[in-house]
Amino acid sequence: MELRTLRYFVAVAEELHFGRAAARLHMSQPPLSRAIKQLETEVGAALFDRSSAGVALTPVGAVLLDEAHDLLDQADRARVRVAAAAGATILTVGILGDSSDPGATRLARAYHRRHPRVEARIRDVDLTDPTCGLHAGTVDVALTRGPFDQTGLAVRELRADPVGVLLRADDPLARHDSLKLTDLADRRWFRFPEGTDRHWQSYWNGGEPREGPVVRAVEECRQAVLWNGTVGMTLLDHEPGQGLTVVPLTDMPPSRVVVAWNEGDTNPLLRSFVRLAIAAYRD
């Protein structure tokens, strides 16, 4: 079994959908399907049950998934050791303004345990660059949130978080159990500077152009609401701070935590980081 084929298998096994797995692997579906069928021929048994209801692992597939994870982890460790011997012992990680996230904390512990001799250089960036420097080439990998321009990037979703509207505690809308975007149509919003990624700007503006104070950091968002009575979106489970409150928005999709890196980057430290990130945010 080739490692590449095992990576294909793991993608299908984790997504349980050939189309999503192909997109994750940045390939078309037909060659992925052929590779899985060839692997099933080599194994001598079906790895997936395919039906109109979807795709499911067979008992044989479940066993292979466990073994594949172990084999790929071992291969990644070998690559990292070789890279370290060759002097590649630094990984630069961009984090978008929320380094206290429990998932990021678990990832930091897991990465240090796996690679204690690798130096992780952390770049904590503000809200104006959701790629955390990937497009600029200043980081190797980013723990961030979508959506943003993914040109030239590979992206894996780690978690989806519900969002709400950030309000002053004495705002009349704060008495509501939930709100919709139409309830905020006549309000001034905090917004990001001109030139900010348009996908990112549009999401946090609720899909509409807005007027209001320009912000670049989480604390600036809070202060814009507190001092000016403006509104804006925030994560539902974030502590808003004294004098502020968050009301759920029922017609906004969740904010998605992602790990992103430059497509085609073969750095073994990066590959290991992505695998550990998926596991850390799953816990």
Care to describe what's here?
This protein has 8 helices and 10 strands. Strands 4-3-5-10-6 form a 5-stranded mixed beta sheet, covered by helices on one side. Strands 8-7-9 form a 3-stranded antiparallel beta sheet. Strands 1-2 form a two-stranded antiparallel ribbon. It starts with a helix and ends with a helix. It has helices spanning about 5-15, 20-25, 30-45, 60-85, 100-115, 200-205, 220-230, 270-280, and strands spanning about 50, 55, 90-95, 120-125, 140-145, 155-160, 165-170, 230-235, 245-250, 255-260. Strand 3 (about 90-95), helix 5 and strand 4 (about 120-125) form a beta-alpha-beta unit. Helices cover about 40% and strands about 20% of the residues. The radius of gyration is 22 Å and the shape is globular. It is α+β, with helices and mostly antiparallel strands.
**What characterizes the major β-sheet?**
5 strands, mixed
Helices, by number, come to: 8
Instruction: Give the strand tally.
Output: 10
**What overall form do the CA principal axes indicate?**
globular
Q: Kindly report the spatial arrangement of strands forming the biggest sheet.
A: 4-3-5-10-6
Query: SSE order, as H and E?
Result: HHHEEHEHEEEEHHEEEH
| Overall SS class | alpha+beta
Spans of 5+ residues with little confidence (pLDDT < 50)? Answer: none
Radius of gyration from the CA trace? 22 Å
Spatial separation of the terminal alpha carbons = 29 Å
